[in-house]
UniProtKB/TrEMBL annotation:
Pfam families for the chain: LigD_N (PF13298)
Domain of life: Bacteria
UniProt-listed PANTHER family: DNA LIGASE D 3'-PHOSPHOESTERASE DOMAIN-CONTAINING PROTEIN (PTHR39465:SF1), DNA LIGASE D, 3'-PHOSPHOESTERASE DOMAIN (PTHR39465)
Record protein name field: DNA ligase D 3'-phosphoesterase domain-containing protein
DNA ligase D 3'-phosphoesterase domain residues: 10-123
């Protein structure tokens, strides 16, 4: 039985503070920058801007990227785990994640340290941004903002500010 694909959410203090939501697809981490982070409230739609693919190894990166590098600034692993693809076609057959992303709608269930339950990424137009929305399920909680309640790294325990103060490329 194949291993479940991984996901990681990295909090990144680059030009602006944002959460990079990364899902393993075809051997790389497909990535979206989500400025306000994932919400547990199904009525909240979060802007998700596609970014470049990253290597699987990057899923464990924490540190401070040098000024000369793209996306310089502090990075922490805010959450990580595995995910399950839930995207289906009209005949209710599972669609491959890469195809789902190409079509503009990708639904998945996260099993992480902080995030659990189902979400969906939906492209708003052919060339543009996406939205990240929590699916109504048992893990939905409109009263809890995990980005505020649990700001620290699941690996180091550091906040983004503490990581920035270390100045180290971990």
């Amino acid at each position: 039985m194949p291993e479940a694909p991984i996901f990681v959410v990295q909090l990144h203090d680059a030009r602006r503070l944002h959460y990079d939501v990364r899902l393993e697809v075809d051997g790389v981490l497909k990535s979206w920058a989500v400025p306000r982070g994932p919400s547990l409230d199904p009525s909240v739609k979060r802007l998700a801007v596609p970014t470049s693919d990253h290597s699987i190894e990057y899923a464990e990166y924490e540190g401070v990227l040098a000024e000369s590098k793209y996306g310089s600034g502090a990075v922490i692993v805010w959450d990580a785990g595995v995910y399950q693809n839930l995207t289906k076609d009209k005949q209710r057959r599972l669609i491959d994640p890469a195809e789902a992303i190409e079509r503009g709608h990708f639904k998945f269930r996260l099993q992480g340290v902080k995030l659990n339950g189902a979400w969906a990424f939906t492209r708003t137009d052919r060339d543009g941004d996406w939205l990240m929305v929590k699916v109504r399920d048992a893990a939905a909680d409109p009263t809890l903002d995990l980005t505020t309640a649990e700001p620290q790294s699941i690996l180091s325990g550091l906040s983004i500010e503490e990581m920035a103060a270390t100045g180290s490329d971990a």
